[in-house]
Amino acid sequence: MELVVWIGAAITLAGFAAILWSLIAVMRLRRQGLEDAQMRARLARIVPLNIGALMLSMLGLIMVVVGVILT
């Protein structure tokens, strides 16, 4: 079960990296000073990626917890 913990940790780190990427992408958009409609259109493409990254990170943390419990 130790392998499940390490795989879960890797998945969590991948999710965290994707969350950081989406944060940086949003910060870049804010600096561009776009109009409201353009900003909303571009954010609409980033939000699903952010939610997916959160879910990936959550899945990894669940794997870590399950691996620790079963060890």
Provide structural commentary:
It is a single chain. The model has no long low-confidence stretch (mean pLDDT 93). The chain has one domain (2-66). The N and C termini lie close together (6 Å). 7% of the residues are buried. The chain contains two helices and no strands. It is rod-shaped, with a radius of gyration of 16 Å. It is an all-alpha fold and 71 residues long.
Helix tally equals: 2
Distance between the termini: 6 Å
The overall pLDDT average reads 93
Strand content: under 5%
Main beta sheet strand tally, sense and closure: none
The overall number of domains is 1
User: Helices and strands, in N-to-C order?
Assistant: HH
- Find the count of extended strands (DSSP E, 2+ residues): 0
Unreliable residue stretches: none
What overall geometry do the principal axes of the alpha carbons give? rod-shaped
**Secondary-structure-derived class:** mainly alpha
Radius of gyration: 16 Å
Features:
71 residues; mainly alpha; 0% strand
Q: Which SSEs are present, and which pair or pack?
A:
Blueprint: H1 2-32, H2 36-70
Helix pairs in contact: 1-2
Keywords: Membrane, Transmembrane, Transmembrane helix
Transmembrane segments: 6-26, 47-70
Concise synopsis of the structure shown:
Keywords: Membrane, Transmembrane, Transmembrane helix. This protein is an all-alpha fold and 71 residues long. It has one domain.
